[in-house]
Amino acid sequence: MKTRTITAIIALSIFVPIVVLGSWPLLITVFLLAYTALYEILKMNRIHIFSIPGMLSMVALFIVMMPQESYMPYISMFQVDLIIVMALLMLSFTVISKNRFSFVDMGFCVLAVAYVGIGFMYFYETREEGIIYILYGLLIVWVTDTGAYLFGRALGKRKLWPQISPNKTLEGFLGGIFCSVLLALLFYLMGWIEGVHVLLFLTLTMILSMFGQLGDLVESALKRHFDVKDSGRLLPGHGGVLDRFDSFIFVLPLMNILPIIT
């Protein structure tokens, strides 16, 4: 617990000022986190990051994550075309490798790039919309996690999904949603989020809270499938980057799809 707390304090003391600054410092940080997460997820499937499929995945991740306004307009203009080329090159490698790198592995790499890339891309894009939005997204995840833990410890009896995450309970799941609604109400009453009706805003917050917890379960299912305890060891006491950002990968894209950011 001591190691976990120290790691959290150090990480937050570095991460929070970068989020506040935004712009290039945040963009560089988000890219570093995304590439670390890609390394972690490929390693689960025994695909080395510096193998041909790994390097193609890194190029594809770079393409997916280019900012929309973009600092490199020619890349952004052809993002979809370039990603298709990366996929075709990976398919070609299944032949060159004589199927040691299979069609299933290729699909895994493409989905890994989408899973990691889209989530971290929207971290940057959400911050660019305004600091209040990224603060709201971060707090939704943290408050939901805290509420789920406290309600689960105090009231938890019915397992939510024991085959995937044996410690999570239905009571904790609902408690996390309840706490997120209280947070949303605070944001609304303080006037920090505008242009959305209060009932719609609370409903959308509940959806984000549910999907944030689902994101955590998705990563748990991934680790269970590959029989690993943590995605990595970068953060002592916390695991890897994916272990810490699994909920954000679901919440931040949804924030930009749902009518929250106006």
From TrEMBL:
PROSITE patterns: CDS. GO terms for molecular function: phosphatidate cytidylyltransferase activity. The chain crosses the membrane at residues 6-35, 47-65, 71-91, 103-124, 130-151, 172-190, 196-214. It holds the Pfam family CTP_transf_1. Keywords: Cell membrane, Lipid biosynthesis, Lipid metabolism, Membrane, Nucleotidyltransferase, Phospholipid biosynthesis, Phospholipid metabolism, Transferase, Transmembrane, Transmembrane helix. Its EC number is 2.7.7.41. InterPro entries: PC_trans. It is an enzyme of class 2 (transferase). Pathway: Phospholipid metabolism; CDP-diacylglycerol biosynthesis; CDP-diacylglycerol from sn-glycerol 3-phosphate: step 3/3; Lipid metabolism. It catalyses: a 1,2-diacyl-sn-glycero-3-phosphate + CTP + H(+) = a CDP-1,2-diacyl-sn-glycerol + diphosphate. GO terms for cellular component: plasma membrane. It is a multi-pass membrane protein. It is found in: Cell membrane. GO terms for biological process: CDP-diacylglycerol biosynthetic process. Belongs to the CDS family. This is Phosphatidate cytidylyltransferase. It comes from Salinicoccus roseus.
